[in-house]
Amino acid sequence: MAATKMSWMRAFTSRVRAFFGGAARDSEFDDELREHLDRLTDRFVAQGKSRDDAQAAARRQFGNIGVLKQDRREVRTLASLEDLGRDLRYALRTLWKSRGFTLVSIATLGLGIGACTSIFSLIDNVLLSPFPYKGSARMAFLQIHDLEKGNDGGRQGYTSTEYLAISEQNHVFDGTTAAAEDPVLYKTGDSVELLYGVHVTPGTFEFFGMPALLGRVLQPGDYEPGAPPVFVMRYKTWVTRFAGDPNILNKVLVLSGTPRTLVGIMPPRFGWYEADVLIPEKLTPDTKPMFADFAADWFFLGRVRPGTTTQQVEADMTVILNGLAKVHPQDYPKRFTVLAKKLGDTVVGRFESTLYTALAAVGLLLLIGCSNVANLMLARATSREKEFALRAALGAGRARLVRLLLVESLVLAFGGAAFGVLIAWGGLKVLVAGMPQNLIPAEAVIELNAPVLVFTLCTAALTTLLFGLAPALQAARRDLNDPVRDTGKGGGSGLRTGRLRNAVVVMEVAMSLVLLIGAGLLMRSFVALREIRLGLNADHVFQTQLPLPAKRYETAMQVRSFFEPLLARLKATPGVVEAAESSTLPPFGGVDTVVEIPGKTHVDDWHALWTHVSEGYFRALRIEFRNGREFTHVEMNDGRKVAVVNETFVRKYFSGQENPVGQHVRISKLKELSDPVRDPVFEIVGVVADVMTSGLQSPPEPEVWIPYTVTGSGAQVLFVRTAQDPASITNLVRQAVSAVDPGVALAYPSPLEERIGDRIYAGPRFGSWLMTVFGIVGLILVTVGVYSVVAYATARRTHEIGIRMALGAERRDVLGLVIGSGIRLVVAGIALGLAISLVLGRVIAAQLNGIAPHDPITFGATTLLLVATAVVACWIPARRASQVDPNVALRYE
Amino acid sequence: MTDLKKSEVLQGTLDLMILKTLHALGPQHGFGIARRIEQVSRDVLSLNEGTVYTSLLRLLQQGWIKSQWGISDNNRKAKFYSITARGERQLAVETENWERISSVVGRVLRLEEE
Questions:
Q1: Which one in A365, A420, A751, B3 has a CA-CA gap of 20 to 30 Å to A686?
Q2: A866: closest CA among A824, A835, A815, A830?
Q3: Residues 22 through 81 of chain B touching chain A, CB cutoff 8 Å
Q4: Cβ count within 10 A of residue A213
Q5: C-beta atoms surrounding A589 within 10 Å
Q6: Euclidean distance between CA atoms A364 and A519, whole angstroms
Q7: Which chain A residue lies closest to B72 (C-alpha atoms)?
Q8: Yes or no, beta carbons of A32 and B6 under 8 Å apart
Q9: In degrees rounded to 5, what are phi and psi of residue A60?
Q10: Of the candidates B31, B50, B79, which has its C-beta nearest A39's C-beta?
Q11: ipTM
Q12: Backbone dihedral region for residue A568 (phi beyond 0: left; psi -120 to 50: alpha; all else: beta)
C-alpha cells in the first residue's frame, strides 16, 4: 500500500513537472523518435531496400507516431487538468442552475468577510497603531491626580519650570518634548485667518523621528534666542490653505505680528497636537505662559525607556513633582500622585468600547454567515446523495467525486471572497465617512488591513470546503447502493447531517439574538441620551471662538471696547434675535475656582466653575431663571460685582430655607488672573436652572457667572441666536468682526447644535448605527438560514405530507406541522441567545446610559422580532407543503 | 512472424522486458532497447517499436529508470536510459511475480489440454 502510494506520488510530481516543462521536452521527444526512425530506415537500406521503401518499412515497424504522441501526452501531463476544466464547467453549470443557493452563499460569505475586515482595519488604524512616530508605543503623558478626587485623571498641563525639572531630573525617559498651543493670526490680503499654532521645545523633531517632506525640520539652532524666526507647517494646512504650492518654502509669513520663515513642510502623517504650524521655543524658568492665566500650558510627552514599567515612571515623576510642590504648594493638590498614560490613551474613551463591541458583533456576523453557508452546503450535499451514488455506480472514483465537490466549494468560496473584498473596501469608506471625525487621531491613515482580510478569507473558504466535503466523503464511503435505493422521502436518511443542520440553526438564531439585543440596547441608550436635558436650547444658535490678540486686549476695558460695538452691530442685523459673549462653551463648563460664602464656615474647600458673560447670555441660550434676575445693562456697564449661580450651587452651599439672592460669594481665583479682580466678592442676583458642565454623563457642578466687564482675562466665545439657519449667518458675523477689528479672526465657527452633536452625540450615534446595521444583516442571514433548513426538510417530507393529506390531514395541520418543526429550533436558539446576552450584558454595560444591560423591553422586543421573522421564514415552505396535491406527492417517485 | 504480432504484448510485460534489458546491458537508447528485445526474442516478438517509448516514459515516471543525453555509437546525440536502484528492486519483485503467474497460467493451460 505504502509503495503504491509513493509511486503514485512520484508519477504525480513528474506529471506536474512535465506539465510545466512543456514545449521544450516535446521537441526533444520528437528528435528522439526521428533518430530512431532514421536508424531503422538506414538498417532497411543496408538490407537492400530503396530509400522510399525503407522509410515506409521503418514507419510500419515503428507504429503510429500520432498515437504515440497522444499516449505520451496522456501519460505525461495532468490528464486530470482537463478533467478539472470539465469539473469547473460542471460546477459553474450546477451553481448557475441553483442560482438562489449560489447567491445566498456568496452574499453571506461576502458580508461576513467584508464586515469583519473593515471593522478590524478600523480598530487597527485608529486604536492599535495610529501613530507613525518612532517608539510611539512607549510614549506617555502625565497627569497630576488629586487623591481627594475620586475619579481618574487630573492636570495635564505643566509650567516651564515643571517641564524643565521633569526632563532634566527623570530616570525613566529616553526623550521628552512639550507642546503649548498658540492661536496664530495670519494676514492674507484684507482678511485675517486663524492658524492653530503650537510651540514646541528643542528636540521635538528628533523625538518623533520623522523627516520633513519638503525643506527641513526644526534644528537645535532654531530654538536659540536671537536665531532668525522660523517655523514648520503641517501637510494638511499646506494643501488646504496654500494649495500645496512648493514655492511657499523659505517665504516669510507674518504670524501674529512676527515675520517667520517657513523652513519645512511635514509629511501627511505628521499630525502632532493637530498643529497647523510648529514654532520653536526654548523653555527657561522665566518663560512667560502663552495665556496669562494658564501658566501650566505645556503638554508633556515622554518616551519611556524600554523595559521601564508604568509604576516606575509614576514613582519617579511623583518624587520630582513633590519636590516642586514643596516650593510652590499653591500650584498642587494637597495630596497627589502622578499618573502616566500611554499616548494611545488619547484616542480612547467611549469610542474604543464602541469599536470593540462592533468587532465582537462582526465576529458573530461572520459566525452566522459561516453557519449559514455550512447549513446550505450540508442541505445541498445531502439532497445530492443520490446523484453521487449514481455517479459512483457509473464508475466515478471517490477521489473524482470529492474533487467535483471541492471544485464547487472553491468556486463558491472564491465568489464569496471576491464579494467580501468589495464589501470590505466599500464598507471601510462608509465607516470612515460615518465616523465622528474628532475621534480619529490626525496621524491615523485608515486602510484595509491585509492580514485580517487574508484571515477572514481563509475562514470563509475553510468553512465552505469543510461543509461541502464532509457529506461528500461520507457519501462516498457509504454503500453506494443505499442512497440509490433510498426513496429519500422518509425522515430516516441523512439523520446525522440533519441533526448537525439543526444544531447549526440553533446556534445561528442564538447569535443573531445576541446581536439584535446589543443593537437594541445601544439604540435605546442613544435615545435616552438624546432625552437628557442640557439645560440650554442650542437650536438656532451660532457660535464661534474669537481669540483676541493678547497684546491689544489685556484689560476689561479693552475687551469691552471690542464686544460692545460688535454685539450692538449684530443685534441690529436682521434675523439676529440675540447676541452674547461668554468665556466658555457650554455644556462644557468654566474654570475651576475656590469659592467662599461670607458667614459660612466649613473644613473642605468649596469649588465652583466661573464664567464671565455679557448681559444677553442667558436669553441667547434660553437658560431659565429659577430665582432673581439677569444682569442689567447698568451693572454690565459699570462692571459691578454681581453674580448669577446655578441650582446645584444653591443646593450645595445654601440650606433649604435661605434665599441665596442678596447673599455674597467670594471667587478666589479672580485675584490670580493676569487682569486681577481686587476683593472678588460678588452679590448673587439670580439663580438659573442647571446646565450640563462636563457633557451628558456627569451631573452638573456648581457654577457662577459674572459680568465680562469685570476682568479682561479668559477666552472669548460669541453666541448669536438667529431666526433662520444659524450656519447662514457665518459671513455676516465675519464682516461684523472685521468691521470692529480687522485683526481678529473667527475660530471654529459653527452652529452650536452641531458642535455639541460632534462632541457628545457622534460617538454613541455611530455605535448604535453600526450595531443596527449589523443587527439587520444578522437578522436577514438568520432568516435565510431558518428558511433554507425548513424548506429543505419539508421538501424531503413531501411524500410523508402527501400521505398525511391523503389520510385526511387538513392544510392547517400541515402548516402547523412544518412551522412547528422550524419554531422548535428557533425557540431553542432564542433560549440560548437570551442566556448568552445576559452573560455578555456586562461587556456592553459601559456603553449604556440610563438603561440596564438586561433591559426587559429590549430583550422582549428583539425576541418578538426574531420570532416573527422566523415564523415568516417557516411559513413560506409550509404554505408550499400545504398546497401539495396528495396524488402528485404519492405518485412522485 | 507468429501469432504474437505487433503490440499484442501486454503493457506490463514490455515494461518488465525493458527493465531486464537495462539491467543486463546497462545504459541504452530506445533504438538499442528495441534491437535487444528483437534479438532476444529471436524475432518471435515483433513490436511496434514506438510502444517502447511509451513504456520508457511510464518507467521514468515511476522513477525506475533515468535518462541522460549522450553520444551514440554512430556519433549522434541520443538519450540513454539506465535502471535505477529502485528499478532494480522493482525488477526483482516483478520477475518473481511474473514467474509465479506464468507458472500458474502454464499449469492451468496444461490442465485444459489434458
A1: A751
A2: A830
A3: 30-31, 34, 46, 48-51, 53-54, 57-58, 60-63, 74, 76-79
A4: 16
A5: 23
A6: 13
A7: A35
A8: no
A9: -60, -50
A10: B31
A11: 0.81
A12: alpha
Backbone angles phi, psi at A689, to 5 degrees: -65, 155
Vertex A850 angle, CA A845 and A852, to 5°: 45
CB A161 within 8 A of CB A154: no
Nine-digit cell string for A436: 465622528
User: Cα–chain-centroid distance for residue A410?
Assistant: 32
Asked if A76 and B57 count as a contact pair (C-beta separation under 8 A), the reply is: yes
Pairing of strands A230-233, A258-265: parallel
Chain B residues with CB under 8 Å of A67 CB are: 50
What is the arithmetic mean of pLDDT over A710-722? 90
Question: Do the Cβ atoms of A753 and A537 come closer than 8 Å?
Answer: no
Residue A11 to chain B, least CA–CA distance (Å): 5
Q: Average pLDDT of A26-38? A: 80
In angstroms, the CA A818 to CA A823 distance is 9
Residues of chain B with C-beta less than 8 angstroms from the C-beta of A31:
77
Averaged pLDDT, A743-748: 86
Using DSSP's 3-state secondary structure scheme, residue A298 falls into strand
Cα dihedral A830, A836, A837, A838 sign = positive
Question: Cα(A341)–Cα(A140) distance, rounded to whole angstroms?
Answer: 5
Handedness of CA A351, A352, A357, A363 (dihedral sign): positive
Query: For A609-664, how does the pLDDT look when each residue is reduced to its tens digit (9 = 90+)?
Result: 999 999 899 999 999 999 999 999 999 999 999 999 999 999 999 987 889 999 99
How many residue contacts between A and B have a Cβ separation below 8 Å?
62
Give the distance from residue B5's alpha carbon to the nearest chain A alpha carbon, in angstroms.
11
Angle formed by the axes of helices A79-97 and A398-434, nearest 10°: 60
**Can you name the residues that pair with B63 across neighbouring β-strands?**
none
Give the predicted TM-score (pTM) of the model.
Answer: 0.64
Radius of gyration of chain A (CA): 39
Residue B46: list chain A partners with CB under 8 A: 61
Provide the 3-class DSSP secondary structure of residue A724: coil
Which one has a higher pLDDT value, A474 or A67?
A: A67
Q: Is the pLDDT of residue A442 over 90?
A: no
| Torsion sign over Cα A610, A613, A616, A622 | negative
Nearest to A62 among B48, B60, B76 (CB): B48
Who wins on pLDDT, A434 or A138?
Answer: A138
More confident residue, B113 or A807: A807
- A804 close to A890: Cβ distance less than 8 angstroms: no
CA distance A492 to A485: 13
Set of chain A residues whose Cβ sits within 8 Å of the Cβ of B77 = 31, 35
Does the CB of B87 have a partner CB in chain A at under 8 Å?
no
**3-class DSSP state for residue A381?**
helix
CA-CA distance, A32 to A30, in Å (whole number)? 5
Q: Which residues of B touch A46 (CB under 8 A)?
A: none
Beta bridge partner(s), residue A337: A145
Q: How far is CA A776 from each of CA A365, A677, A688, A701, rounded to the nearest angstrom? A: 10, 60, 45, 41
CB spacing of B49 vs A61 below 8 angstroms: yes
* Sheet bearing B77-83, strands edge to edge: B28-29, B77-83, B65-71
CA distance B13 to B34: 14
Phi, psi for residue A481 in degrees, rounded to 5: -75, -30
Distance CA A635, CA A638 (A): 5
Using CB atoms, pick whichever of B49, B61, B74 lies closest to residue A63.
B49
A440: which DSSP letter? S
Name the grid cell of A358.
462592533
Residue indicated by cell numbers 468665556: A583
pLDDT-derived band at A207 (thresholds 50, 70, 90) equals very high
Q: How far apart are CA A718 and CA A541, in angstroms?
A: 10
